[in-house]
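DM between two lab members

TW: hey, do you still have the Glucose-6-phosphate isomerase entry open?
JB: yeah, one sec
JB: this one, 533 aa:
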Amino acid sequence: MSIKVSTSGAATEAVQRHLDRLVSEKFASRLFAKDHTLWGTAAEDESSKRLGWVEAAQVSAPLVDEVAQLRSDLAAKGVDRIVLCGMGGSSLAPEVMTRTAGLPLVVLDSTDPGQVAESVQTDLERTAVVVSSKSGSTLETDSQRRSFVAAFTEAGIDPTERIFIVTDPGSPLEQASRAAGFRVFLADPSVGGRFSAMTAFGLVPAGLAGLDLGAFLAPVASVVDDLEADSPQNPGLVLGAALAGGDPVKTYVGVVEQGTDIVGFGDWAEQLIAESTGKEGKGLLPVVLGQDAPEVGLPIPDLQVVRLVADAAAEPALGDEINVSGSLPEQMLLWEVAVAVAGQLLGINPYDQPDVESAKVAARALLDETPAPTAPAFTEGDIEVRGSDAVTANQSTVLGAIESLLAQLPEGGYVAIQAYANRLGLGELTQIRDAVAHRARRPVTFGWGPRFLHSTGQFHKGGPRVGVFLQITTDSKAEIAIPDRPFSYGGLIHAQAAGDASVLADHGMPVLQLNLTDETGGVQQLVRLLGEI
Ligand SMILES: O=P(O)(O)OC[C@H]1O[C@H](O)[C@H](O)[C@@H](O)[C@@H]1O
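TW: and the structure you got?
JB:
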């Protein structure tokens, strides 16, 4: 078996608490036989439509040659820059697949005007675009598609030769795209977005970017044998029970890449775990941590550290931790099984996302109403400060407001930093995560908006209401229109931020909003200020 899971201390106790029952009730073989009754009657309607992922690699085999052929056809025309437009489950898997393989794939999962402009206005003559959306109705993806159609047309390039669609059969995107002459790759509708790595959603963009899909899928068959076995050695049962079987359950899953050759696994796992489990006031929240992150060294009893290592047999877990090793496709299936197990142990339906819609509705309402902007509570340098009254009252400095936000942390709480900004151009902003964690002494997540709305966003609104939220927006220098829409990208991203903030506030959770009026200067100011705490 090339997947290895090693547990220690409290994680081992969690496994011991549940493993015998999971084996005797044949959880694993029933899962791979697509038994939709594993998560209780309330979940059956959804789970009966969502278990195709257990055989996705086999079902997707025909895509291997089809995508390779398209890649060589494009290469023959000098087209070698691949852009992927898609959110959440339609982009996170191909991103980690190509990053791990060291292949260039431009992932456009943003409405930040600067990031959109950079993706759309670069090297069009050698660019092909994959537009991926399972529902075919995601606003960000639709906006990006419009921008690329317009840009190709303007450049005298036929968009139908360069834009390829991945969607579910019967979606509005399928119908409109076929009618307009675009090539469409249909995905398996019985696989949910966050479980879709080995369907057309993962494979088409990654294969066009150069991933050898045959080699990628090859290890999956033998790993299925291990994961469907009703055995106490089944690594999926062990990992699922270790993550969700504690008494009490540890809410935070600290994912540390330490010696693995997988790059960016945590970003993919975040959506899988948080969106699958974060609901009904329960759930597991992944926290992507560097090896030296403050949380790793602090006594945080509700943080379960999981290290992705090169070989978990040679490096067994210490303390109360979990070590995991295996190649990327093996681990993708491993974690999908573990989440299925965790869903049952937590008593939730892992296949729905009931709270994602609320932020979309709030953003749409703001776009329709276009209310006048509210005045900031105060401004310091390039940073305008707004937020919940309890956070901004009596504050006159950015640091004071951040301290005030952290003072609102309830027991068992966490901080979510949510940056609606150009993640390619303003990457240094991530530096503030460790500084905030150092100060808060609690788990701190860092998400780029609107990307995280399709990932950890479900947990923030549907999980335990113990988060405090530091939202960062920018008045981006580059502003661009969305073709045939009454709003611009800048208007959209601000509405998305404000919409989500209003939903969080309605749920009674503290929000501090920092708007950077000059994005470069504001980031520098914030990084400098947080260096002081
Ligand atoms: O693939 P799409 O239909 O465009 O959906 C993209 C994303 O949208 C929503 O936010 C869902 O909560 C995600 O699970 C999904 O991955």
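TW: got it. The radius of gyration is 22 Å. The pocket of 6-O-phosphono-alpha-D-glucopyranose is lined by residues 87-90, 133-135, 138, 141, 193-194, 275, 353, 356, 454 (CB under 6 Å).
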